[in-house]
Amino acid sequence: MGDRVLVLNAGGTIGMVGTPHGYAPVPGALGPYLDWIVEMSRGELPPIDFVELDPPIDSANATPESWGEIARILFERRADHPGFVVLHGTDTMAYTSSALSFLLPSFGKPVVVTGAQIPIARTRSDGRQNFIGALEVAVQPAVPEVTLLFGEVLLRGNRAMKVDASGLDAFDSPRFPPLAEIGMDIVVNHALVRAADGVPGLTAGTLANVAAVRLFPGFSASILANICAPPLQGLVIEAYGAGNGPSEDLQFLAAIEAATSRGVVVVVVTQCVRGSVQPGVYATGSALARAGAVPGLDMTSEAALTKLAVLLGQGLSTDTVRQMMQDDIAGELTP
Ligand code: ASP
User: Fold this and answer.
1) I want to staple 291 with a disulfide (CB 3.0 to 4.6 A). Which of 211, 220, 253, 295 is the partner?
2) What is the per-residue pLDDT for 285?
3) Is residue 1's pLDDT more than 80?
4) Sign of CA pseudo-dihedral 27, 172, 138, 117
């Protein structure tokens, strides 16, 4: 293994260029800036190898195939590098960092996903600092898991959410403390970092058909039933508070029941920013459970959706997936 960090550009604002329609990714535009930053560091930063998705994308165009492609590249080059930086758009970065944590079990090396709110070619870009921080985390073995670095924090990838559409501290993990603070020094909270154990793998299989819906007063049962029709295999319900839903809407509950008896795995997370689903605290939450939904505890919607897609895509039995959705498999939930 050499000492070169692999930098994979998936796209996003960090490498974008202005066009008449707004910022858009341009193949080949980002690499020279990164080379220049590394060169100017006069050895303070590790050397890099640079690869790019063909073509780099605005992450609003990301698909489960994009997650699979990124995971495949990282897995195939795992032995060749001490660590990995994935440059990615911020819009769906939390989905990708969650998905990678499930697609690359026991990876055992740092995978740092980062990007920028302002293109690196612009004077006030945050991309330079984020890239430098990510390289510094990726080259040392202290945090051997999939993380998301942005602004002043290093977050567990499957705990992160985008919380700001324009601010430079755009990500947070409100239900789990940062794994490191990125200040004058990079201060790692070692007690929170997951140990590297197990045999590294690349989860095989295509990703399943899943969806996420947010409850709101008046959500029609027939719309829910339509969403739950084939080919849906898994559904994340972003429920109220501690995991509550409309227990008096019997048609709504019947739609959940019909879906679960057809083998759809229905998982409840909270639409609150902080806290967790607490099974059994309210009768309105118990009704969802009786209809067959399983509690997603303190998982983010992004983590629940990608975990469901990965697990169901492996062809595991419905009962196994229902159980695993409540188990901690990559640090995504607090049991
Ligand atoms: N639309 C961009 C993207 O997600 C936003 C960004 O990178 O900040 O690719």
Assistant:
1) 253
2) 87
3) no
4) positive
CB-ligand 1 contact for 59 (6 Å cutoff): yes
Residue at 85 is within a domain: yes
Query: Residue of the nearest CA to atom 3 in ligand 1?
Result: 89
Q: Across residues 84-107, what is the average pLDDT?
A: 98
**Of 124, 156, 188, which closes a domain?**
188
The pLDDT tens digits for 41-58 are 999 999 999 999 999 999
- Residues 223, 257, single domain; the answer is yes
- 96 counts as catalytic: no
The closest-lying atom of ligand 1 relative to the alpha carbon of residue 14 is 7
13 lines ligand 1 (CB under 6 A): yes
Please give the share of the chain, as a percent, with pLDDT higher than 90. 96
Q: What is the DSSP string of 193-221?
A: SPP--S------SPPP-EEEEE--TT--H
Both tokens of 22, joined, read 């707004």
- Phi-psi label, residue 142: left if phi above 0, alpha if psi -120 to 50, beta otherwise: alpha
